[in-house]
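User: Fold this one for me? It's catalase.
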Amino acid sequence: MQGGQVPRVFLRLLMIFHILHELIFCEPQESRHLLLFVSPLFIHERGSPETLRDPRGFAVKFYTREVSYTDLYCLLSGFEGNFDLVGNNFPVFFIRDGMKFPDMVHALKPNPKSHIQENWRILDFFSHHPESLHMFTFLFDDVGVPQDYRHMEGSGVNTYTLINKSGKAHYVKFHWKPTCGVKCLLEEEAIKVGGSNHSHATKDLSDSIAAGNYPEWKLFIQTIDPDHEDRFDFDPFDVTKTWPEDILPLQPVGRLVLNKNIDNFFAENEQLAFCPAIVVPGLPANAPKCAHHNHHHEGFMNFMHRDEEVNYFSSRFDPVCHAERFPMPPSVLRGKRDRCIIEKENNFKQPGERYRSWAPDRQERFICRWVEALLDPRVTHEILSIWISYWSQANKSLGQKIATRLNVRPSI
Ligand SMILES: *[C@@H]1O[C@H](CO)[C@@H](O)[C@H](O)[C@H]1NC(C)=O
Ligand SMILES: *[C@@H]1O[C@H](CO)[C@@H](O)[C@H](O)[C@H]1NC(C)=O
Ligand SMILES: *[C@@H]1O[C@H](CO)[C@@H](O)[C@H](O)[C@H]1NC(C)=O
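Assistant: Here's what I get for catalase.
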């Protein structure tokens, strides 16, 4: 994630997790220190205008309490300390196979020869990944340029496995919804705002907090019982899919209010690190606030003076103790470990549904943005045909409209 002039603010989570459902969030009405990090841009470089079309990062660091168990029992971490919920402003991601992440980033980044971001490279790479269509129905939609950070959604994107105190696992997705609603900048507005105030969104966030107009998000979860994971036409762990809200409703679990600006950008923002898998040691902003940690403290930009001789866990020389044990559900696994395409790819249904859910003018803007991207002279006829075929499979008339405007005869 390109942390640009990353606005980051301390915040308190007020009245966190007041509904419990049967799972994770246990202590109601509790005020908690949290940290929110939104990165202006994912692809573009630091200092780029905040009006560019780009996914935005949305990550929250929960400092767990100094008590014997955490609110969140997370299989992925298994630790008490920090829980870092790292995601972005769209609920899905471009690709399914994490091994392709570096290639994806290279395609999105500037051409290594010219240092110019070029659509033909992006469209070439993603033509091999029809699962990216869903993410493109967000990026090339109006929400691809949020008005500012207050009017932007956040999402955990990944599916988490959370275990409650009885040892029952649930699959969970996290969603942050701004209470002031979602707002976007259309092309002409974006040019105007970006042309005069290139970090307008950072300023908006900071000004709003300073004025006491605290930005606020509601936190929702969706849950799937692991026993039901085969009931859907998608794989619940596929990051290119959303969980339909009509069958897996959003359940409100908390509220997040940004009520304090940072005091020092470098110390509290530039050095902020998120790790979805484990406690992040070392730096004050990243260090857990509770007694549980794993002693690991070396690493990039670590400036704290330390003289401990024990940097491993467990140790009889150090009082740090294990968090209270909680039950982990056992599972019997049998089968073949393989690297292959998942069974339920279903790459076109959700992008098609999303397109059809829009009003005609919004569909038209989406088509225009695609036509413009595909007009890059280095997009070959082959690549063009593949994209037209993909969009046709999502929605026939969408593919046809793009083909007609590009003067291409669709091959399917
Ligand atoms: C854990 O989840 C199961 C199944 O939803 C439920 O029956 C049980 O009461 C839950 N336990 C706790 C402590 O919430
Ligand atoms: C740019 O920022 C200034 C100062 O906050 C504001 O007065 C002005 O309206 C902004 N311009 C645009 C085009 O948003
Ligand atoms: C494609 O989208 C249009 C516009 O929303 C809709 O009228 C049409 O029924 C869709 N076509 C298919 C095949 O789903």
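One thing worth pointing out: Residues 302 and 372 are 45 Å apart (CA to CA).
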